[in-house]
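Possible regression after last week's pipeline update?

I re-ran a chain I had predicted before the update to compare outputs. Posting the input and the new output here so someone can diff against the archived version. Not blocking, just want to make sure nothing changed silently.
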Amino acid sequence: MNRRDFMSAGIAGALALVNAKLWAAPGGAKLLVVMLRGAYDGASLLVPYASDFYYRSRPSIAVPRPDSVDPNAAIALDSDWALNAAVKDSLLPLYKNKQAVLIPFSGSDDLSRSHFQAQDLMELGQSGGGALDYSSGYLNRLVEVLSTGGSRSAASFTNNLTPVFKGAVPVPNISLRGNMKNKLPPRQSEMIASLYEGTKLSGMATAGMATKKMVSAELMNEMTESSRGAGAARAFSTQARAIAKLMRDKPAYSIGFADIGGWDTHVNQGSAQGALAENLAGLAGGISAFAQEMGGLWRSTVVVVMSEFGRTFRENGNRGTDHGHGNTLWVLGGGLSGGRVAGRQVAVNEASLFQNRDYQVLNDYRSVLAYLFSRMYGLGGTPLERVLPGARAEDYGFI
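New output (post-update):
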């Protein structure tokens, strides 16, 4: 071994030792996965502000370019990407403290654009293209693999035990939401019909509004069903603090799963203000509260935020977005080397869209999870293959 190789090996060994000490801290590594049910619009969180195509594609809902004068302007992270102003008091401080990583162009290879199939596939930890195996979810298999080397347990903080925790290992389900329901504001489109009252177009306008009302009702029904009973983002801060207390004080709850609904924004999505911005603020505020409540254990904790797929890059006729493909995945934690936009990327323009409508998926969600599990728990080879069959642990460089 020459001197350069020896020094490289020494540096790699030292980094591995630092990681080992970090994740072997008192209380052990903590992992919380948060599923955003309904497919949130990652392009409104992580804004490709350098892309003129983004602003042409979203005349009503684009987040304003970084501008110190405009309070709704996005906050620049680098020369290409900016954060929605709705999360400037919660996610931005974590990012600046190098405790947050954002991975655009992420997701699964599922092309169904079905909320339920895509959610199940992600929770099961499988690749698309075949029949889903519901015998176990990837977090249950993770607990099972980790339990062979010592005690390791988990808890699902959801109304019902979802596919991610189904399997051979019994996992308790702890609902923190009670009977809370998502409430969506009703459409006020009937007001338009009154503008035509008493004119020759009155009949046509009334019929048109009736059709529009029917279609809107169907969209609202879908937007509610896609949440699958998950709680609202606006209440997540209270729930996140409760989850943190349980994971902090009870070693048995070292791996957790939570879900949040209300992300299916077909209608009146908004940009830096509006329904989506309120959801993003609630979500990011909850994660910030979770980090604070974890105290010293935040240093050995990782939070992963994902959604079943993204939204169409272009806005639709209802000032919203429809079912898409690629999205932006979040990874947060006190021990990360964060403050970066990670993963494979391409220029955001019309030529780079998937099927001329969506973000591509360049970063498989399973490769991100495999990377995390390899660094946090030292998994590789057969154990990692057991948890995430066929996944490759690519080096994303933030642990």
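Follow-up from reviewer: compared with the archived run. Residues 198 and 229 are 44 Å apart (CA to CA). Marking as no regression found.
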